[in-house]
C-alpha cells in the first residue's frame, strides 16, 4: 500500500491529542503512540456476533480497533467509537519479534473484524 496516495485526516486520541491518519477504502487507518506503545487504529463495524472482550464480554456497533505493540507483545483493543474506555479483545495478544510487522498484524486484524455487511 502506498501511504503517500491516501488522504490524511487528523483524529483525536483518548487524551485529545491529534494524530495524522489515512483513509484506506472506507476504513480509517491510524498511527499513534499510546502510553509508550506503538499502535495503529481503525474504525470498524464487526459482524453480527460483535467482538468478545476480556472486560465486558461482547461489544457491537461502531468501534475503534487499536493494535498496540509494547514490550514485544502485540495486543488488540477495542472501544465504542469516541468513547474513553478501551477493552482487550479476548485471545488477541501474541509476541511480535519484529516491530516492522505491526502494520501487517493491524491490517489482518481489521480484515478479520471489520464486517459491516455481516
Summarize the structure in words.
- By secondary structure, this protein is mainly beta.
- The protein has one helix and nine strands; from the N terminus they run E-E-E-E-E-E-E-E-E-H.
- Strand 7 (63-70) and strand 8 (73-80) form a beta hairpin.
- Mean pLDDT is 80; it is low at 1-36.
Structure classification: mainly beta
Task: Pick out the low-confidence regions.
Answer: 1-36
Order of helices and strands: EEEEEEEEEH
Percentage beta strand = over 45%
Alpha-carbon Rg, integer: 13 Å
| Distance N to C terminus | 26 Å
Cross-sheet strand order for the largest sheet: 1-2-3-4-7-8-9
Principal-axis shape: globular
Number of helices: 1
Major pleated sheet:
7 strands, antiparallel
How many strand elements?
A: 9
Give the averaged pLDDT, no decimals: 80
Share of residues in helices: 10-25%
Keywords:
single chain, 118 residues, mainly beta, 7-stranded antiparallel β-sheet, two-stranded antiparallel sheet, globular
Summarize the topology.
Blueprint: E1 8-12, E2 18-24, E3 27-34, E4 37-44, E5 51-53, E6 57-59, E7 63-70, E8 73-80, E9 87-95, H1 102-113
Antiparallel strand pairs: 1-2, 2-3, 3-4, 4-7, 5-6, 7-8, 8-9
In short:
The chain is mainly beta. The chain is built from one helix and nine strands. It has one helix at residues 102-113; strands spanning 8-12, 18-24, 27-34, 37-44, 51-53, 57-59, 63-70, 73-80, 87-95.
Amino acid at each position: 500500500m502506498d501511504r503517500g496516495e491516501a488522504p490524511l485526516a487528523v483524529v483525536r486520541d483518548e487524551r485529545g491529542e491529534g494524530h495524522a491518519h489515512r483513509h484506506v477504502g472506507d476504513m480509517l487507518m491510524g498511527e499513534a503512540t499510546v502510553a509508550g506503545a506503538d499502535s495503529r487504529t481503525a474504525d470498524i463495524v464487526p459482524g453480527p456476533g460483535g467482538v468478545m472482550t476480556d472486560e465486558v464480554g461482547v461489544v457491537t456497533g461502531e468501534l475503534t480497533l487499536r493494535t498496540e505493540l509494547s514490550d514485544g507483545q502485540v495486543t488488540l483493543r477495542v472501544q465504542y467509537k469516541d468513547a474513553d474506555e478501551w477493552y482487550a479483545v479476548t485471545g488477541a495478544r501474541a509476541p511480535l519479534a519484529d516491530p516492522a510487522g505491526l502494520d501487517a498484524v493491524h491490517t489482518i486484524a481489521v480484515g478479520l473484524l471489520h464486517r459491516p455487511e455481516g
